[in-house]
Amino acid sequence: MRLKSALLGLGLGALGLVTTLPAQAEQYRLGLITPPPHQWTKTAEAIAAEIAEATEGRVEILVMPSGQLGNEARMLQQLQTGAIDFALLTAAEFANRDADYGVFYAPFIADDAQDAARLLRGEVAGTLLDRMDNFGLHGLAWGMAGLRQIVTSGPVSSVADLEGQRIRTVPLAPEMAFWTGLGAAPTPMPLPALYDAFANGQVDGMQIDHEGTWNSGYWKHAGTVIASGHMIFPMAAVASGRKWQTLSEADRATVSRIFETRVAGMVDLYGEIDAINLARLQETGVPVIEVDRAWFGPAVEAWYESWRAKAPLLADLEAEAAR
Ligand code: BEZ
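Above: the input record for the complex with benzoic acid. Below: its predicted structure, written as C-alpha coordinates.
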Protein backbone atom coordinates (compact mmCIF):
# COMPACT_ATOMS: atom_id res chain seq x y z
CA MET A 1 0.00 0.00 0.00
CA ARG A 2 2.94 2.30 0.69
CA LEU A 3 4.00 1.72 -2.92
CA LYS A 4 0.47 2.34 -4.11
CA SER A 5 0.29 5.68 -2.24
CA ALA A 6 3.66 6.70 -3.69
CA LEU A 7 2.51 5.89 -7.22
CA LEU A 8 -0.70 7.82 -6.69
CA GLY A 9 1.42 10.71 -5.40
CA LEU A 10 3.38 10.63 -8.67
CA GLY A 11 0.14 10.81 -10.65
CA LEU A 12 0.67 7.30 -12.01
CA GLY A 13 -2.81 6.23 -10.87
CA ALA A 14 -4.25 8.22 -13.76
CA LEU A 15 -2.18 6.07 -16.17
CA GLY A 16 -3.81 2.92 -14.82
CA LEU A 17 -0.53 1.55 -13.43
CA VAL A 18 -1.67 1.36 -9.83
CA THR A 19 -4.49 -1.13 -10.45
CA THR A 20 -1.94 -3.86 -11.20
CA LEU A 21 -0.91 -3.99 -7.51
CA PRO A 22 -2.24 -6.82 -5.28
CA ALA A 23 -5.92 -6.22 -4.52
CA GLN A 24 -5.68 -7.35 -0.89
CA ALA A 25 -3.19 -4.61 0.17
CA GLU A 26 -5.07 -2.14 2.36
CA GLN A 27 -4.12 0.79 4.54
CA TYR A 28 -5.58 0.53 8.03
CA ARG A 29 -5.78 3.37 10.53
CA LEU A 30 -5.09 3.28 14.25
CA GLY A 31 -6.28 6.21 16.37
CA LEU A 32 -5.19 7.29 19.83
CA ILE A 33 -5.25 10.48 21.88
CA THR A 34 -1.68 10.54 23.18
CA PRO A 35 0.98 12.77 21.59
CA PRO A 36 3.98 11.35 19.66
CA PRO A 37 6.46 11.15 22.61
CA HIS A 38 4.02 9.13 24.76
CA GLN A 39 4.75 5.45 25.29
CA TRP A 40 1.34 4.46 23.87
CA THR A 41 2.18 6.20 20.61
CA LYS A 42 5.68 4.71 20.47
CA THR A 43 4.20 1.26 21.07
CA ALA A 44 1.56 1.79 18.36
CA GLU A 45 4.32 2.73 15.90
CA ALA A 46 6.31 -0.37 16.80
CA ILE A 47 3.20 -2.55 16.43
CA ALA A 48 2.45 -1.07 12.99
CA ALA A 49 6.02 -1.64 11.78
CA GLU A 50 6.12 -5.22 13.02
CA ILE A 51 2.71 -6.08 11.55
CA ALA A 52 3.60 -4.60 8.16
CA GLU A 53 6.71 -6.77 8.05
CA ALA A 54 5.08 -9.94 9.37
CA THR A 55 2.17 -9.71 6.90
CA GLU A 56 4.45 -8.73 4.00
CA GLY A 57 2.61 -5.45 3.62
CA ARG A 58 -0.92 -6.87 3.56
CA VAL A 59 -1.73 -5.06 6.82
CA GLU A 60 -0.23 -1.57 6.77
CA ILE A 61 -1.36 0.49 9.76
CA LEU A 62 -1.13 4.26 9.77
CA VAL A 63 -0.85 5.54 13.36
CA MET A 64 -2.79 8.76 13.97
CA PRO A 65 -1.86 10.20 17.42
CA SER A 66 -2.96 13.30 19.37
CA GLY A 67 -6.67 12.75 18.72
CA GLN A 68 -6.35 13.44 14.97
CA LEU A 69 -9.32 11.11 14.41
CA GLY A 70 -11.36 12.86 17.07
CA ASN A 71 -11.92 12.26 20.76
CA GLU A 72 -12.43 8.76 22.11
CA ALA A 73 -16.25 8.89 21.82
CA ARG A 74 -15.86 9.75 18.15
CA MET A 75 -13.22 7.07 17.62
CA LEU A 76 -15.49 4.47 19.18
CA GLN A 77 -18.28 5.39 16.74
CA GLN A 78 -15.86 5.17 13.82
CA LEU A 79 -14.59 1.78 14.98
CA GLN A 80 -18.17 0.56 15.17
CA THR A 81 -18.92 1.57 11.59
CA GLY A 82 -15.55 0.36 10.31
CA ALA A 83 -14.46 3.91 9.36
CA ILE A 84 -11.31 3.29 11.40
CA ASP A 85 -9.70 -0.03 12.10
CA PHE A 86 -7.73 -0.04 15.34
CA ALA A 87 -7.38 2.14 18.42
CA LEU A 88 -5.63 2.37 21.75
CA LEU A 89 -8.29 3.75 24.07
CA THR A 90 -8.57 4.61 27.73
CA ALA A 91 -11.37 2.61 29.33
CA ALA A 92 -13.51 5.75 29.74
CA GLU A 93 -16.02 5.15 26.96
CA PHE A 94 -16.47 1.54 28.04
CA ALA A 95 -16.78 2.26 31.76
CA ASN A 96 -19.41 4.93 31.12
CA ARG A 97 -21.55 2.34 29.28
CA ASP A 98 -20.84 -0.76 31.38
CA ALA A 99 -19.76 -0.26 35.02
CA ASP A 100 -17.72 -3.48 34.97
CA TYR A 101 -15.18 -1.68 32.75
CA GLY A 102 -14.64 0.70 35.68
CA VAL A 103 -13.19 -1.98 37.97
CA PHE A 104 -9.55 -1.30 37.05
CA TYR A 105 -10.01 2.22 38.45
CA ALA A 106 -10.61 0.82 41.94
CA PRO A 107 -8.32 2.89 44.20
CA PHE A 108 -5.25 1.01 45.43
CA ILE A 109 -6.37 -2.27 43.81
CA ALA A 110 -2.74 -2.72 42.67
CA ASP A 111 0.24 -2.34 45.00
CA ASP A 112 2.54 -1.13 42.22
CA ALA A 113 3.02 -1.22 38.44
CA GLN A 114 4.08 -4.86 38.48
CA ASP A 115 0.96 -5.83 40.38
CA ALA A 116 -1.11 -3.78 37.93
CA ALA A 117 0.47 -5.75 35.06
CA ARG A 118 -0.59 -9.01 36.74
CA LEU A 119 -4.22 -7.83 37.02
CA LEU A 120 -4.29 -6.60 33.43
CA ARG A 121 -3.43 -10.14 32.32
CA GLY A 122 -5.81 -11.83 34.75
CA GLU A 123 -9.21 -13.47 34.40
CA VAL A 124 -11.29 -10.33 34.85
CA ALA A 125 -9.20 -8.62 32.19
CA GLY A 126 -9.81 -11.56 29.85
CA THR A 127 -13.56 -11.46 30.47
CA LEU A 128 -13.66 -7.74 29.72
CA LEU A 129 -11.67 -8.19 26.50
CA ASP A 130 -14.06 -10.94 25.38
CA ARG A 131 -17.04 -8.68 26.07
CA MET A 132 -15.73 -6.01 23.68
CA ASP A 133 -17.94 -7.52 20.98
CA ASN A 134 -20.87 -5.88 22.85
CA PHE A 135 -19.38 -2.61 21.58
CA GLY A 136 -18.86 -3.88 18.04
CA LEU A 137 -15.13 -4.29 18.74
CA HIS A 138 -12.57 -7.04 18.90
CA GLY A 139 -10.48 -6.76 22.09
CA LEU A 140 -6.76 -7.32 21.53
CA ALA A 141 -4.98 -6.51 24.80
CA TRP A 142 -5.09 -4.46 28.00
CA GLY A 143 -2.34 -1.95 28.51
CA MET A 144 -1.96 0.99 30.88
CA ALA A 145 -0.32 4.35 31.38
CA GLY A 146 1.19 3.37 34.71
CA LEU A 147 -0.43 4.46 37.96
CA ARG A 148 -2.36 7.68 38.57
CA GLN A 149 -0.72 10.50 40.49
CA ILE A 150 -1.86 14.02 41.43
CA VAL A 151 -0.45 17.41 40.49
CA THR A 152 -1.78 20.61 42.08
CA SER A 153 -1.03 24.26 41.51
CA GLY A 154 -0.95 25.05 45.23
CA PRO A 155 0.68 23.52 48.30
CA VAL A 156 -0.83 20.30 49.67
CA SER A 157 0.22 18.55 52.84
CA SER A 158 -2.90 16.63 53.84
CA VAL A 159 -5.91 15.25 52.00
CA ALA A 160 -8.02 18.05 53.51
CA ASP A 161 -6.13 20.48 51.26
CA LEU A 162 -7.82 18.85 48.25
CA GLU A 163 -11.32 19.73 49.45
CA GLY A 164 -13.10 22.08 47.10
CA GLN A 165 -10.26 21.94 44.57
CA ARG A 166 -11.15 21.64 40.89
CA ILE A 167 -9.31 18.49 39.92
CA ARG A 168 -9.08 17.52 36.28
CA THR A 169 -10.13 13.93 35.63
CA VAL A 170 -10.92 11.91 32.55
CA PRO A 171 -14.68 12.08 31.77
CA LEU A 172 -15.15 8.81 33.56
CA ALA A 173 -17.62 7.95 36.33
CA PRO A 174 -15.36 5.87 38.65
CA GLU A 175 -12.55 8.47 38.61
CA MET A 176 -14.98 11.31 39.22
CA ALA A 177 -16.65 9.40 42.06
CA PHE A 178 -13.29 9.08 43.81
CA TRP A 179 -12.80 12.85 43.75
CA THR A 180 -16.35 13.63 44.81
CA GLY A 181 -15.77 11.29 47.78
CA LEU A 182 -12.74 13.39 48.75
CA GLY A 183 -14.82 16.58 48.73
CA ALA A 184 -13.09 17.91 45.60
CA ALA A 185 -14.77 19.12 42.41
CA PRO A 186 -13.87 16.65 39.65
CA THR A 187 -13.56 18.52 36.37
CA PRO A 188 -13.63 16.18 33.37
CA MET A 189 -11.37 17.30 30.59
CA PRO A 190 -9.70 15.55 27.66
CA LEU A 191 -5.93 15.32 27.70
CA PRO A 192 -5.25 17.76 24.81
CA ALA A 193 -7.04 20.59 26.69
CA LEU A 194 -5.19 20.07 29.95
CA TYR A 195 -1.98 22.07 29.60
CA ASP A 196 -3.72 25.40 28.93
CA ALA A 197 -6.45 24.78 31.50
CA PHE A 198 -3.85 24.17 34.23
CA ALA A 199 -1.61 27.05 33.15
CA ASN A 200 -4.60 29.44 33.06
CA GLY A 201 -5.96 28.31 36.42
CA GLN A 202 -9.20 26.80 35.07
CA VAL A 203 -8.37 23.75 37.17
CA ASP A 204 -6.48 23.64 40.48
CA GLY A 205 -5.00 20.23 39.90
CA MET A 206 -5.15 17.06 37.94
CA GLN A 207 -5.14 13.32 38.14
CA ILE A 208 -2.40 12.26 35.75
CA ASP A 209 0.69 10.05 35.43
CA HIS A 210 4.35 10.94 36.06
CA GLU A 211 5.10 10.42 32.35
CA GLY A 212 2.59 13.07 31.21
CA THR A 213 3.57 15.42 34.04
CA TRP A 214 7.12 15.38 32.79
CA ASN A 215 6.66 15.10 29.00
CA SER A 216 3.88 17.66 28.72
CA GLY A 217 5.50 20.04 31.23
CA TYR A 218 2.55 20.26 33.66
CA TRP A 219 5.15 20.41 36.44
CA LYS A 220 6.11 23.93 35.29
CA HIS A 221 2.84 25.23 36.77
CA ALA A 222 2.78 22.88 39.76
CA GLY A 223 2.90 23.71 43.48
CA THR A 224 2.89 20.06 44.56
CA VAL A 225 3.32 16.66 42.96
CA ILE A 226 1.55 13.98 45.00
CA ALA A 227 3.08 10.59 44.23
CA SER A 228 0.05 8.54 45.21
CA GLY A 229 -0.04 5.71 42.67
CA HIS A 230 -3.69 5.45 43.66
CA MET A 231 -5.22 3.92 40.52
CA ILE A 232 -4.29 1.92 37.46
CA PHE A 233 -4.93 3.84 34.26
CA PRO A 234 -5.96 1.06 31.87
CA MET A 235 -5.79 1.15 28.09
CA ALA A 236 -7.65 -1.13 25.70
CA ALA A 237 -6.10 -2.08 22.36
CA VAL A 238 -9.04 -2.83 20.08
CA ALA A 239 -9.94 -3.51 16.47
CA SER A 240 -13.14 -2.63 14.69
CA GLY A 241 -15.29 -5.79 14.81
CA ARG A 242 -16.37 -5.22 11.22
CA LYS A 243 -12.89 -4.75 9.86
CA TRP A 244 -11.51 -7.61 11.92
CA GLN A 245 -13.74 -10.03 10.02
CA THR A 246 -12.26 -8.90 6.71
CA LEU A 247 -8.72 -10.01 7.65
CA SER A 248 -7.69 -13.56 6.79
CA GLU A 249 -7.46 -15.99 9.69
CA ALA A 250 -3.67 -16.07 9.36
CA ASP A 251 -3.39 -12.27 9.42
CA ARG A 252 -5.75 -12.10 12.42
CA ALA A 253 -3.48 -14.52 14.30
CA THR A 254 -0.39 -12.45 13.41
CA VAL A 255 -2.00 -9.14 14.35
CA SER A 256 -3.30 -10.57 17.66
CA ARG A 257 0.09 -11.98 18.59
CA ILE A 258 1.94 -8.74 17.84
CA PHE A 259 -0.53 -6.54 19.74
CA GLU A 260 -0.46 -8.90 22.74
CA THR A 261 3.33 -9.10 22.87
CA ARG A 262 4.04 -5.41 22.28
CA VAL A 263 1.35 -4.16 24.68
CA ALA A 264 2.54 -6.60 27.37
CA GLY A 265 6.10 -5.35 26.85
CA MET A 266 4.90 -1.78 27.27
CA VAL A 267 2.99 -2.61 30.45
CA ASP A 268 6.12 -4.22 31.89
CA LEU A 269 8.07 -1.04 31.19
CA TYR A 270 5.77 1.19 33.23
CA GLY A 271 7.36 0.57 36.64
CA GLU A 272 10.59 1.93 35.18
CA ILE A 273 8.90 4.73 33.20
CA ASP A 274 7.11 5.91 36.37
CA ALA A 275 10.32 5.74 38.43
CA ILE A 276 12.41 7.62 35.84
CA ASN A 277 9.85 10.41 35.51
CA LEU A 278 9.35 10.66 39.28
CA ALA A 279 13.12 11.12 39.65
CA ARG A 280 13.06 13.85 36.99
CA LEU A 281 10.20 15.61 38.78
CA GLN A 282 12.05 15.42 42.10
CA GLU A 283 14.90 17.35 40.52
CA THR A 284 12.71 20.24 39.36
CA GLY A 285 12.40 21.79 42.81
CA VAL A 286 8.60 21.28 42.88
CA PRO A 287 7.75 19.65 46.24
CA VAL A 288 6.95 15.95 45.77
CA ILE A 289 5.10 14.18 48.57
CA GLU A 290 4.68 10.41 48.63
CA VAL A 291 1.36 9.21 50.07
CA ASP A 292 -0.42 5.89 50.60
CA ARG A 293 -3.95 4.52 50.92
CA ALA A 294 -4.28 5.63 54.57
CA TRP A 295 -3.54 9.26 53.57
CA PHE A 296 -6.85 9.38 51.64
CA GLY A 297 -8.88 8.29 54.69
CA PRO A 298 -12.37 6.72 54.54
CA ALA A 299 -13.06 7.86 50.94
CA VAL A 300 -11.29 4.78 49.57
CA GLU A 301 -13.49 2.26 51.38
CA ALA A 302 -16.59 4.35 50.58
CA TRP A 303 -15.68 4.11 46.88
CA TYR A 304 -15.55 0.30 47.12
CA GLU A 305 -18.88 0.10 48.93
CA SER A 306 -20.59 2.11 46.24
CA TRP A 307 -18.92 0.41 43.23
CA ARG A 308 -19.33 -3.16 44.47
CA ALA A 309 -23.06 -2.62 44.02
CA LYS A 310 -22.65 -1.21 40.50
CA ALA A 311 -19.98 -3.47 39.04
CA PRO A 312 -20.34 -7.22 39.71
CA LEU A 313 -16.80 -7.92 38.44
CA LEU A 314 -15.25 -5.72 41.15
CA ALA A 315 -15.51 -8.48 43.76
CA ASP A 316 -13.77 -10.86 41.33
CA LEU A 317 -10.97 -8.36 40.73
CA GLU A 318 -10.56 -7.82 44.46
CA ALA A 319 -10.24 -11.60 44.90
CA GLU A 320 -7.61 -11.71 42.13
CA ALA A 321 -5.75 -8.79 43.71
CA ALA A 322 -5.67 -10.56 47.07
CA ARG A 323 -4.17 -13.75 45.60
C1 BEZ B 1 -5.21 11.17 30.47
O1 BEZ B 1 -6.25 11.61 29.92
O2 BEZ B 1 -4.90 11.51 31.62
C2 BEZ B 1 -4.37 10.19 29.74
C3 BEZ B 1 -4.83 9.65 28.56
C4 BEZ B 1 -4.05 8.74 27.88
C5 BEZ B 1 -2.81 8.37 28.38
C6 BEZ B 1 -2.36 8.91 29.55
C7 BEZ B 1 -3.13 9.83 30.23
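Notes for the reader.
The chain has 13 helices and eleven strands.
The radius of gyration is 21 Å.
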